[in-house]
């Protein structure tokens, strides 16, 4: 059966194309940083928003028109698999991601849930034999069902902890079966609402115990995927334990897990934490912990996780600047953890949304690559810190200075002269590069 009937394979037609169902800037064959764009960007479709999401919000019912809407249970799950592989092929996308709960129905009986999962995983494996689309990461949904209302690995109830362990154990087996390149741990409800009823120390100790057990089991079964923590500051709990990259790093170091994990950084989670997307990417990068990216964007007027498709070229440019400086994402990729708006309910909107996101990142990549080639920010920053390359500055950096030598230096100084940070000039330069990229691309 064909699910997306009026849509042909999406191809690169270039910026002058007026075909809405074509890539204008994303050319999988073009070279970025010595790699084909497809291999460098490693775009992924997220199963939950694209195939499982129904368009509900706290005030309204489902709006999405989908060809499999009338089905339920395992029939629905199977139809979604068929539709998803048709979608991957038509979009020509190299990766996808899912939660266990997205692909197969959960019941109140764990063995039954596992059986459902086995049936769908077998079907996906079959499809993957003839598809180019691979699994970027899988994860376990431990936040939707009421059993997780107080958390999973940080729940105050040991039975819930055990249930969570069983789910992740299965998730690691599924990841291995499907050749997943990463395994994601997003905090879900791992956080708290009020200290009046919370033993934070025990909850954090338990979370670390859980992660160690997960790694032990992955090693035991020979599943060598990169483990990723996905920080988020709030929502669903008021205080999420994996607030941001810096908080996550402190936790990993405290519990001896720093070599086990890298970070999966989501744009909308960064802004919820009061950071920019590029701040989170930068903190992870300079610490060698940038693993993968959930590519989306929030809405500055709304204070929650809106998971919009990324179209802001400043954001994609500055994100790709970090990613190119990181020499790509290794086993990670750019996963569209993004959903079409409630009002964009046609199946065709799923294509428009992904095309918009992929083109926005392709433009960002081109601009970032030029900025780096011309060493626009690099040279400016090097000059700004040049006082640390000789004299007393070099002594500081090389560990040769102490408070005696620094006092002596300071006493010999006249008035100190500072240099301008030239922020407005640099922003104008960024504008120039974005506009020039268009001009070159368009000519
Ligand atoms: C929710 C998260 C979630 C993770 C995977 O806000 O983004 O979807 O990416 O569990
Ligand atoms: Ca995410
Ligand atoms: Ca999100």
TrEMBL record:
Free-text cofactor note: Binds 2 magnesium ions per subunit.
Q: Does the keyword Nucleus apply?
A: no
UniProt entry keywords in alphabetical sequence: Carbohydrate metabolism, Cytoplasm, Isomerase, Magnesium, Metal-binding, Xylose metabolism
Kindly report, in one word, the top-level EC class recorded for this enzyme: isomerase
| Gene Ontology CC, one term | cytoplasm
Q: What is its EC number?
A: 5.3.1.5
> Could you confirm whether the keyword Metal-binding appears in this record?
yes
- Per UniProt, what is one GO molecular function of this protein? magnesium ion binding
Amino-acid positions noted as binding Mg(2+) 2 in the UniProt annotation, renumbered to this chain: 266, 269, 305, 307
Q: Transmembrane region positions?
A: none
Question: Catalytic residues per the record?
Answer: 99, 102
- Where is this protein localized, as stated in its record? Cytoplasm
Q: How does it assemble?
A: Homotetramer.
Q: Which NCBIfam families match?
A: PRK05474.1, xylose_isom_A
Its family remark reads: Belongs to the xylose isomerase family.
Please give the name of this protein. Xylose isomerase
From the broadest rank down, the organism's phylogenetic lineage runs: Bacteria, Bacillati, Bacillota, Bacilli, Bacillales
The record's gene field reads xylA
